[in-house]
Amino acid sequence: MKRRLLIVDDDRDSVRLLKAQLINSRWIEVCGEALGVEEAWAKLQANQPHLVLLGGIKGTERGVLCQQFRLAFPHLSFIAACSSNELMWEPFFRNLGLWVIAKPIEPGQIEALAMMIQPPGMVAEAAPQQHQYVIQEQTRSYPSQQPSISEPITDSLVPEMTRPKQLITVYGPKGGVGKTFISRELAIFFSMQKNEGVPLRVIAVDFNLDLGTFATTLNLPRTPNLFTWVKDLDAQLHSFIQDQGKDPYSISSEEWQEYAQALPLSPQHIEKYVVAHPDTGLHVLTSPRDIRQSFEIRDYHLYLILETLKQSNYDVILIDTAPDTTDATIQALFFAEHVVMVGNPVVDSIENIQRLLKLLREAEYPEERIQICMNRLQRKEMFTLDEIRAYFQLLPSKKIFSIPDDVEVKKSINTGTPVMLQSGRIPAKEAIETLGKALFPVDGEQMKAAEKEKQKEKTSLFKWLWG
Ligand SMILES: Nc1ncnc2c1ncn2[C@@H]1O[C@H](COP(=O)(O)OP(=O)(O)O)[C@@H](O)[C@H]1O
Ligand SMILES: [Mg+2]
Questions:
Q1: Where in the numbering of this chain does the Response regulatory domain appear (predicted)?
Q2: Which of 408, 409, 420 to mutate to test the pocket of ligand 1 (most atoms within 8 A of CB)?
Q3: Which is more confident, 43 or 446?
Q4: How confident is the model at residue 162 (pLDDT cuts 50, 70, 90)?
Q5: Residues 401-411: tens digit of each pLDDT
Q6: CATH code for 3-153?
C-alpha cells in the first residue's frame, strides 16, 4: 500500500516537478498539493494523507504550522524541506519531531522516509535503496509518530522548546588536567542554582567509557550505569526492527545503524539509568563498571543517548570526557552548546589544546562555544594567560578562565566532597563559580543571547564528521 503524501508549498514549479518525479513511485502517492494554509487544511481533511511535506509558505512558520496540523491530525508525519540557508532550523524541527531533508528534494529521500512510517494496519515493506543516503545526508531524522508510542510526542516536546537547555562538555586533550574535578564541581554548582525560582535539573554524564571515575569522586554506586542503558537500547532496537517485519539477526550492520537512527526515543525513561547524589539531587549517568562493557558501546548507542538527553527535561547536561579523540568524545563536543577546554599551564597541555583548536577550526566548529580554562595556576607561572591567548590565536575579547592550584582540591577528591559544598573561602571554588555563571547565565537578557547563538549552529558539522 502506498503512503499518501500531501505537498504544502507555495512554489508551484517545485511542486509540479516533485509530483512528476513521484508519479510512478511504488511507495508514494501524491494525494494533494496546497499552495496556502487554507488549502492545506481542506486537503488534510479531504484527502487523508499519511505524510505531509512542508516546503514553505511565505509568511508562515513551519514549526508552528506543523504543531497546529498535528493537533487536529495526530497521526500525521511531517517532513520539512529546507534549503541550505534554512538548515540552521534543523535542530529546531527535529525537536518538534519533524523529519528534515535538504532541497533540492530527491524523490528517493521522501520514499525512504515514507517507508519508515507505518500507518496503523499496514504491513512493513522493504525500504527502497536510497534509504541509506537519506540518513547520511540528513543527519538524524526520526518519525514524528510511531504506532508503538502511546502518548503523543507533542505533549512531551512542546514544553521543552520554551525552556533553554545547555549541554556542556568538559574536555581537555591531556589526562590529569582537572576535567573530572571541574565537571563534578560545575555539576554540583548548577544543581544548587535556580532559574525563576525553580531549582535547575542537572545531569552529569561520565563519557570516560572505559576508565571513568566520576561516580567515585562523589562516592556514588555505579549501578545502574550507561551500559544498562546501552543494553536496553539494543533490546528496543531488536523489537523495533521486528516490528518493521525484519529479522534483527540477519540484517547488515548498515541497516542496523539506519534503524538505530529511526528508533523512537524515550527521554521520560532516563531516570532508570541514573544514580542520584544524596546531598544535592544531582543525577549522574555513570560509566560502565567493567572495562569490557565499554568495548560493546557503539557510536549509535552514544548518538541515541545524546539525542535522548537533548530531549529530556534536564536544564543542564554536563559531560565529562576522556582525553582522547574517540567517537564518544567527538560526539560530546559536537552536541554541546558549550565546551570547557581544560588545560594546565604546561607546554604539553598547551600544545595539545592548540592542535585541537586547529582541528575544530578546520571543521568550522563555532569557536564561540569554546571556553578555555587553565587549571592549577600557581602564583608565578612561566606562561601568562596573555601569552597563552596569543599562542591559541584567540580573539582579544575572549576570556581565558583560570582556576588556581588549591590544596583543598585533592582532599575533596579523596573524600568525595565537592569544594562547592564546603563552606569558607576556597579559591578553586570561587573560580569555578565564575566559570559556571559564564556558562549558564540565568539572567533573562543573557539567556536570549545564548538562544541566538544556538540558532547559528552549523549542521554541516556532522557531515564533516561522518562524511
Ligand atoms: N585546581 C586544582 N588544584 C589542585 N589539584 C588539582 C586541581 N585540579 C585538579 N587537581 C588534581 O589533579 C588530579 C587529576 O584531576 P582530574 O580531574 O582527575 O583530571 P582529568 O579528569 O583531566 O584526568 C586530581 O585528582 C586532583 O588531585
Ligand atoms: Mg577524568
A1: 4-118
A2: 409
A3: 43
A4: very low
A5: 999 999 999 99
A6: 3.40.50.2300
